[in-house]
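User: Hi! I have a protein structure encoded as tokens and I'd like to know what sequence might fold into it. I'm fairly new to this, so please keep things simple.
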């Protein structure tokens, strides 16, 4: 496994946890990942065999440009866009399409399940709806969930960065063990 692959896995785990828990993608982690990845890429220019830098630079630019329109339309958070650009820097442009496809399918499935769950709640008989409401109230009172809700500060939505992170980890592992580029 390359240093960039290890860096990508570490950053992805941290971003996934943060996005799932607080619906936040910390800029400090993205900046640190950019600095470390850039240093590894620059050092790679002086090693034998020489490591190409262009796929990583192109990945960062394409990652940013690909998701920026979704941010402009308010369909996606800025953290998701920045994280995708950082993934492009760490993994190269060739990883972006497979990572984006897998993450988008997972996020789409998440959305379908959320909508189906809401619809199912309306279709349940009255006594089952009351049981679901009672259980939900008990669950909402749990200290761990209250802490998570406080960390989210009202942010809602699908944790797209977490899905990007899991897809990127899959891509790194597939490139090592499955023969992907």
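Assistant: Happy to help. Inverse folding works backwards from shape to sequence: for each of the 181 positions I chose a residue that suits the local structure. Here it is:
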């Amino acid at each position: 496994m390359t240093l960039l692959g290890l860096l990508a896995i570490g950053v992805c785990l941290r971003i996934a946890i943060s996005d799932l828990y607080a619906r936040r993608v910390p800029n400090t982690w993205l900046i640190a990942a950019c600095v470390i990845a850039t240093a590894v890429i620059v050092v790679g220019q002086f090693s034998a065999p020489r490591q190409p830098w262009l796929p990583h630079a192109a990945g960062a630019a394409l990652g940013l440009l690909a998701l920026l329109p979704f941010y402009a339309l308010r369909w996606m958070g800025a953290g998701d866009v920045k994280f995708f650009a950082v993934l492009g820097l760490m993994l190269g442009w060739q990883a972006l399409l497979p990572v984006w496809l897998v993450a988008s399918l997972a996020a789409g499935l998440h959305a379908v399940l959320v909508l189906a769950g809401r619809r199912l709640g309306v279709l349940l008989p009255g006594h089952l709806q009351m049981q679901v409401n009672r259980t939900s109230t008990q669950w909402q009172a749990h200290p761990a969930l209250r802490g998570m809700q406080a960390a989210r500060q009202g942010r809602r939505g699908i944790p797209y960065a977490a899905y990007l992170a899991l897809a990127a980890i899959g891509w790194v592992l597939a490139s090592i063990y499955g023969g992907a580029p």
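A useful reference point when you look it over: Residues 3-178 form one domain. Feel free to ask if any position seems puzzling.
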